[in-house]
Inverse folding.
C-alpha cells in the first residue's frame, strides 16, 4: 500500500497506513518541504552533518517533530556508514546526533524505550521503519544497496526478536521513498551482490538494459523482509522515486554532495 501524504503549514511528510493503525507509536517520512534552511539545503534539511546553518536544522526538527508528535530533544540519529550494525538504543543515548555527539556508528536503530525517536537518513537509499505492537518495540533502518545486499533488514528483525521478544510475523514494516528502478542505473556489481545474497529471489528486481542494469531497491528490501518472515500484508512500500521527484526529495545521484537529507523517524509513545 502506498504512503499517505500530510501537509501542515507547508511542511509535507508521509506516514504508513499500517503504522497509522497503531496507537502506541508516532512516525513519519520527511520531504524537503516546509523548513527554513537556505539553498542548497532548502528547506527541510534534517541532516546536521551535511552543512548549512545548525540553527536552521534545529528549527526544522522542531517543525517535523511537532507535526508527527515526537520529542525533538530526545531524537537519536543514526551514524550511517553503509554497514550492518544494529544498535540497541537505550535511555542514555537520548538526544545523540542533534544535541550531543554520537558515540557509535550504526545504520539501524532498535529500541523498546518510550519517547526515543529513532531517525535514519536518505538521499536515494532505502529507509525502513519497523514495529511489533505486541512486543512494544520499534526499529529504523538505512538500507542502501550495500546494506541491502548485506542483509541489514533481516539482521534488524532478528535483533528485535532477540532483544525484545518480537516475532517476525507480527512486525509491521514501512519502506519509505528511495531511488526507483526507473533511475537506479548501475554496473554489474550491484546485481551480482544482490544475486549472491538473495539468489533467484533477486531476479525480479534486476533488469538488464544492455550496458547498464536497473535495480529496484525498494523491491529488494521488501524481499529481505519477506525472507525474514514478515508477512506481505504487513509491508507498506512507497511508490515515490527520490531522483524523479526533486520537488519533494534530495537525490545524491542528481545533485551530488551539496544537499540536505530527508529522514524516517519512529518513536514509541
Amino acid at each position: 500500500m502506498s504512503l499517505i501524504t500530510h501537509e501542515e503549514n507547508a511542511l509535507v511528510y508521509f506516514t504508513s497506513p499500517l503504522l497509522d493503525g497503531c496507537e502506541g507509536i508516532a512516525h513519519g517520512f520527511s520531504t524537503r518541504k516546509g523548513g527554513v534552511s537556505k539553498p542548497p539545503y532548502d528547506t527541510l534539511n534534517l541532516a546536521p552533518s551535511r552543512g548549512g546553518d545548525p540553527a536552521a536544522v534545529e528549527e526544522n526538527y522542531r517543525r517535523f517533530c511537532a507535526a508527527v508528535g515526537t520529542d525533538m530533544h530526545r531524537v537519536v540519529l543514526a551514524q550511517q556508514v553503509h554497514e550492518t550494525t544494529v544498535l540497541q538504543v537505550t535511555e542514555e543515548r537520548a538526544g545523540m546526533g542533534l544535541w550531543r555527539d554520537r558515540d557509535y556508528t550504526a545504520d539501524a536503530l532498535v529500541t523498546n524505550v518510550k519517547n526515543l525517536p529513532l531517525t535514519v537518513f536518505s538521499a536515494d537509499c532505502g529507509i525502513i521503519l519497523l514495529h511489533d505492537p505486541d512486543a512494544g518495540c520499534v526499529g529504523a533502518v538505512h538500507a542502501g544497496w550495500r546494506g541491502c545486499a548485506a542483509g541489514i533488514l533481516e539482521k534488524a528483525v532478528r535483533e528485535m526478536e532477540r532483544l525484545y521478544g518480537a516475532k517476525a510475523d507480527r512486525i509491521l514494516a514501512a519502506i519509505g521513498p528511495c531511488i526507483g528502478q526507473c533511475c537506479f542505473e548501475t554496473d554489474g556489481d550491484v546485481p551480482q551482490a544482490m544475486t549472491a545474497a538473495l539468489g533467484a529471489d533477486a531476479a525480479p528486481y534486476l533488469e538488464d538494459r544492455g550496458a547498464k542494469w536497473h535495480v529496484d531497491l525498494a523491491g529488494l528490501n521488501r524481499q529481505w523482509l519477506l525472507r525474514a518472515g514478515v508477512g506481505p500484508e504487513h509491508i507498506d512500500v512507497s511508490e515515490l522515486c527520490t531522483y524523479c521527484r526533486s520537488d519533494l526529495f534530495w537525490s545524491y545521484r542528481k545533485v551530488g554532495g551539496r544537499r540536505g537529507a530527508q529522514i524516517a523517524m519512529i518513536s514509541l509513545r
